[in-house]
Design brief:
This protein is mostly helical and 204 residues long. It has helices spanning 2-19, 24-35, 39-58, 61-65, 69-95, 108-123, 126-141, 147-168, 179-203. 79% of the residues lie in helices and 0% in strands. α2 (24-35) runs antiparallel to α6 and α3 crosses α7.
Length: 204
């Protein structure tokens, strides 16, 4: 029992250390949380996607995927282009601000856009595969028969982080109620997306 708890705790800590870093996915979840737009769907997609990728890594799929480096490069190019486009849209919002934060309930179209964007942010980012499938998979392999317990801890860390980021972001609602404050957040999102997009395109 103690060995299982140790493995789960190690997986939780490792998973959290990989997820917390500022990135495109976190910036998107934060923005959706502040806007209170499809937060449950976005958090669910991020957590379930991570759980699936972690399971693939723990199951040894990482070694198989590594045999096709061209596929990873292709994902990097597509993901980089997507992040550049999203960053450009965020930069445009900075230059042409709206009226501040709106939280009056999202439309079906807004939810659909949020879901599709979240799926693209998650599955078109090669770093997600490197962190969850390759790195966590190899670390889990060192745990032997407790590798799935390690993976469960990492998946739990992902769920806790995205839930805290998405639903906790609502506390920033008053701070971002003005157009000026919202422009600052969009500016940070734009810089993050554009920088990551350039790095992905250059490294692919």
């Amino acid at each position: 029992m103690n060995h299982a708890l140790t493995a789960a705790a190690a997986g939780f800590g490792t998973g959290l250390s990989l997820i917390v870093a500022i990135g495109a996915q976190n910036a998107f979840v934060l923005r959706q949380g502040v806007r209170r737009d499809a937060v449950l769907a976005v958090v669910g997609i991020c957590a379930l996607s991570d759980a699936l990728l972690i399971a693939l890594g723990v199951g040894g799929v990482g070694a198989v995927v590594a045999a096709w480096p061209g596929a990873v490069r292709a994902v990097g190019l597509v993901g980089g282009a997507f992040l550049l486009c999203y960053g450009a849209l965020a930069a445009r919002r900075v230059l042409r601000p709206g009226t501040g934060l709106r939280t009056e309930g999202e439309s079906a179209g807004s939810r659909r856009r949020a879901v599709l964007t979240c799926l693209a942010m998650t599955w078109l980012n090669p770093h997600v595969y490197l962190d969850t499938v390759f790195l966590l998979g190899s670390l889990a392999a060192d745990r032997g028969p407790l590798r799935w317990t390690f993976g469960l801890g990492a998946a739990l860390a992902s769920l806790c982080w995205f839930a805290a980021l998405g639903f906790g972001a609502r506390l920033l609602g008053r701070l971002l109620a003005s157009p000026a404050a919202w422009r600052v957040l969009d500016g940070l999102v734009a810089v993050t997306m554009l920088a990551l997009g350039v790095m992905l395109m250059a490294g692919s």
